[in-house]
Amino acid sequence: MTAERAQLVAWIAGAIGLVLAMIGWLLEPSVFPHAWLAALSAWIGWPLGCLALLMVHALTGGRWGEAIRPQLLAGVGTLPLLLPALIPLLFVLPALYPWLRPDDAARLGNRFYLNEPFAIGRTIVYLVIWFGFAAGAVLASRFGQIPGWVAAPGLILLGLSASFAAIDATMSLEPQFNSSDYGMIAAAEGGLLGLSTCVLLAAMGPPLTPGLLNDLGRLLQGLLVLWAYLDFVQLLIVWQGDLPHGATWYNDRASHGWGVVAGIVAFGHFLLPFFVLVWPPLRRSARAIGVVAALLVVMEFLRVWWLVLPAGHRGFSWIDVAAMLAIWGFASALALRDPMLRLWAPQASHG
């Protein structure tokens, strides 16, 4: 399959997913809001994670960043999808967030932060930071890489904005739940997802040397351990402190079949990839590391469904698949448009 044909398939998949999601919105309006939010939350880590990795590489250097620079820039290039993707959410916000419903908001103690004007202001700040640094990264790529004096503050602002955006978008679905670890988990997951997509695309492109594959595998393993550690710490704090709202939050995600999903995510999003990446021969194999990267991307879908859908007090629906197909189909098509992204081409190895 050529890159052009893959791009066409992605556009068609996105269009089919969008049509099905809109039909689902008409047929089951109470199901669509969480489905669309979950799809958007699962995707946004790709461009933001790629942007963060570009800044990290500008500060640290290393051949790993040069090897996947086209993939990183292609991921950042999907960020414009965010603007049209936000439009459906504007019509369903009260159905998602209790703090936007006057009767529910009156019973909350954190109304200083969770209120409509402040939320709008924060969202504007997030968008300005993300699109500003994304445009700068794309322009800087023409001259080599992002200057270090831009990358250092940019990485700080990106980390803070991504963390608070995750708190606003998904943690505030259940405003009684509080976690100081939540934003860091989301930021780590974004970096892991961004790297996973880049490694997957690189594995399908011109062959990389075993040394480069080993570098990418070690970096992937490091981000995987960071995410797992932060996620486990949140669970440990809630369990050890016997926090009532935290216990309720986890109980909702352990019942009605969601406990099975949590087990699958624990195995497929950490245990299996970790032990594969520990073994050097597999870490130096393009096929093995590509399969691990693909598994991590798929597991991110399950992880976000587990995170978001129980807040709507419902189970899994075909609308969730349609929304995910729409967002990821269009995002993949945008990424595949990048002329620097060479896939399925038998060319010389990097490095």
Tell me what you see in this structure.
The protein has 351 residues and is mostly helical. It has one domain (3-336). Helices cover 75% and strands 0% of the residues. α2 packs parallel to α16. The longest helix is centred in the middle third of the chain and has 32 residues, at 210-241. Residues 345-351 have low confidence and may be disordered.
Give the low-confidence spans: 345-351
Taken from the alpha-carbon principal axes, the silhouette is globular
Structural class by sheet pairing and helices: mainly alpha
Number of domains: 1
Q: Assign a percent range to the helix content.
A: over 70%
Mean pLDDT over the full residue set:
91
Brief summary of the model shown:
The protein is mainly alpha-helical and 351 residues long. It contains 16 helices and no strands.
Q: What distinguishing features does this structure have?
A:
mainly alpha, 16 helices, 351 residues
Secondary structure blueprint with pairings:
Layout: H1 3-27, H2 32-60, H3 63-67, H4 69-76, H5 82-90, H6 93-96, H7 102-105, H8 116-141, H9 148-169, H10 182-203, H11 210-241, H12 244-252, H13 258-278, H14 280-283, H15 286-308, H16 318-336
Helix pairs in contact: 1-16, 2-4, 2-5, 2-8, 2-9, 2-10, 2-15, 2-16, 4-16, 8-9, 9-10, 10-11, 10-15, 11-13, 13-15
